[in-house]
Design goal:
Mean pLDDT: 96
Order of helices and strands: HHEHHHEEEEEEEEHHEEEEHH
Low-confidence stretches: none
Radius of gyration: 18 Å
Shape: globular
Strand content: 25-35%
Oligomer: single chain
Structural class: alpha+beta
């Protein structure tokens, strides 16, 4: 069973353990601040396990993060343990892609029912991970502690958009067909092993802070201030990458020649 006490300590939550909107908002805000997005295992060719003990060991007990399947599956276990009705959904990532391009489902989000209302929750979309649950209501601007989001209809799917520098950017599309653990395993296998998967070829890390977001793409560290300009800094070597992962994202990168080789590769 999930060690809920350890998870709450990891994210810094000490509030009520009741399935209310206030609890959901608090957990959705705290998780991306405390458990960073990162893909070091897949980048290094290491398998990504999705069973609960593996998720707890990596994301809760160790100073590590994970990508969408790890993050949102752990969050689903947490929400279910608190008493929420949470279901997994599969999404097509369309960030910075042509609007009419059909993309494979390679992302996971959660649908949470609270009374008559439904919310989607996502703690694993990297640099634009929402920091509040988004109600599944079409064409309504919904502010969060960071960006403003909205849900729009696209044919028979829903699309999630974020307002970034005053422009609406589409993140992903999804329908409401529930995905079971075996479905998520298949999606994870694709992301983990397919030659075209960016998780195998690029380094990603992201973490939200109260007033900014941190992002790492290969050797470029970005800091996006909520009320100011963005900054970028290039990291020049493997030791520098390890320092940035540790000091900025709170990630203790695993030791090993495979990890060092992967980090060196993204700096080429």
């Amino acid at each position: 069973m999930l060690d809920l006490d350890s998870y709450f300590k990891r994210v810094g939550y000490s509030g009520p353990r009741t399935a209310t909107l206030e609890t959901l908002c608090a957990l959705q805000a705290l998780h991306p601040r405390s458990i960073p997005f990162e893909n070091l295992d897949t980048l290094s060719g290491r398998p990504v396990a999705l069973d609960l003990p593996s998720l707890e060991h990596k994301l809760v007990q160790s100073r590590r993060g994970g990508y969408c399947f790890e993050q949102n599956l752990l969050f689903k276990h947490v929400l279910t343990a608190v008493g929420f009705d949470a279901a997994a959904l599969a999404a097509r990532v369309v960030w910075e892609r042509p609007a009419d391009e059909v993309r494979a489902r390679s992302h996971m989000v959660l649908l949470v029912a609270l009374g008559e209302r439904r919310y989607f929750c996502d703690v694993g979309f990297g640099g634009l991970t929402p920091t509040a649950p988004i109600e599944l209501t079409v064409d309504v601007e919904q502010p969060t502690p960071h960006e403003t989001f909205r849900v729009v209809r696209v044919a028979n799917e829903f699309a999630v958009e974020a307002r970034v520098r005053e422009a609406w950017k589409r993140l992903y599309r999804f329908d409401l067909q529930e995905q079971h653990d075996v479905d998520i395993e298949v999606l994870n296998h694709y992301v983990m092993t397919h030659a075209a998967s960016p998780m195998r070829s690029r380094l990603f890390a992201a973490r939200a802070a109260a007033d900014r977001r941190f992002g790492l793409g290969n050797g470029v560290l970005s800091v996006h201030h909520l009320r100011g300009a963005s900054e970028q800094q290039r990291v020049g070597d493997v030791a520098g990458l390890r320092r940035v992962l540790e000091q900025t994202f709170g990630i203790e990168a695993p030791a090993g020649r495979d990890v060092d080789a992967a980090l060196a590769r993204v700096l080429e």
